[in-house]
Amino acid sequence: MRRSLSIAVVAGLLAGTGVALASPKPLPLRDRLIEQGDFAGFRPESKTHSFSTAKAWVAGGPHSTAAQTSAEIARLHREGFVAVLAVFLDRGSAQGSGLSWVMQLGSAASARAELKVDLMENKAASSGSFSAFPVPGIPGAQGYRVSGGGSVGENIFFADGPFLSLVGQGWSSGDKTPPTRAGLIAAVKKLYTRVHGHPAG
Questions:
Q1: Residue-wise pLDDT tens digits, 140-155
Q2: Which residues contact 26 (CB under 8 A, 6 or more apart)?
Q3: Weakly modelled stretches of the chain, pLDDT under 50
Q4: Is the N or the C terminus of the chain less surrounded, counting Cβ atoms within 10 Å?
Q5: Predicted local confidence at residue 13, as pLDDT
Q6: What is the pLDDT of residue 4?
Q7: Burial letters for 34-61: b for 16+ Cβ neighbours within 10 Å, e otherwise?
Q8: Is residue 169 within a helix (H) or strand (E), and if so which, with residue range?
Q9: Direct distance between the N- and C-terminal alpha carbons of the chain, in angstroms, rounded to an integer
Q10: Measuring CA to CA, which residue among 85, 80, 31, 30 is closest to residue 57?
Q11: Paired sense of beta strands 151-160 and 142-148, if any
Q12: Distance CA 67, CA 73 (A)
C-alpha cells in the first residue's frame, strides 16, 4: 500500500441569544476520505483499504531494515494507533494516480507528532528532488512535491484532533496536462471543512 505519491468540539452559548451550539456529529473514518466531487478531475475507487494494526500499515512504508520497521511500529503503538483507511483516486484512465488516507491515533498531540515524522520520512525516502509548499487556510498543514525517475507527486498532510490525513496526486513528467496544485489544495480544504472538529464515529 503506497503511503504517499511521488505523490474542537464547539461548546457554550451564542453570545446574547441563549441558544446552545450543536456539537459536531461523530464521523467514521470512511467519511474522512476524499469523496466524489471533492477533487476536480479525480474520482475515488469503489474499494477502500483498511489497516487495523500498526504492523499492517508499516508494511507498506519506505523502510529498508527490520530495525526501522520495528521502531515505527513501536512509535505508532505509543501514539495510540487505532486504524488507517485509504482509497486510491483515478484520473481519467490513470488508475491510482491519487490517494487519500486517514489515520486515527490516541490524541491530537500524537496526530501532530506523526505528521512531522511522516513528512521527514517521506523526504528521506525521496530519491529525487523534494520541495515544500504552503497550504493556506488549514492550520499546521504541510504540502510537498517530489520528483524523479520520470514521475512527479504532490501531497498534503493535515492533522485535526486525533486524526492525520494525507491527500496526494501523481503523474508522469511527460504528462502534457498534469493536475494542478491549486486543485489539490482546493480538494484538501473541502475535506478539512467537512471533517474539522468532528469526533470519532
A1: 999 999 999 999 999 9
A2: 198, 199, 200, 201
A3: 7-19
A4: C
A5: 32
A6: 67
A7: bbeebbebbbbeeeebebeebeebbeeb
A8: strand 163-172
A9: 24
A10: 85
A11: antiparallel
A12: 10
Task: Read off the amino acid at residue 196.
Answer: H
Grid cell listed for 161: 484532533
Cα three-residue angle 163-164-170, rounded to 5 degrees: 145
Q: How far is it, in rounded angstroms, from Cα 31 to Cα 23?
A: 17
DSSP string over 2-22: -SS-------SB-TTT-PBPP
Given this model, what pLDDT does residue 3 score? 64
Instruction: Using the structure block, give the residue that is written with the C-alpha cell 464515529.
Output: 201
H or E stretch at 168:
strand 163-172
Question: What pLDDT shows up at residue 5?
Answer: 58
CA distance 85 to 128: 28
* Rounded Cα gap, residues 139 and 104, in angstroms: 18
| pTM for the model | 0.88
Residues constituting the chain: 201
- What pLDDT, on a 0 to 100 scale, did the predictor assign at position 125? 84
Decide if 90 contacts 46 (C-beta within 8 A).
no
Number of H helices, E strands in the chain: 4, 7
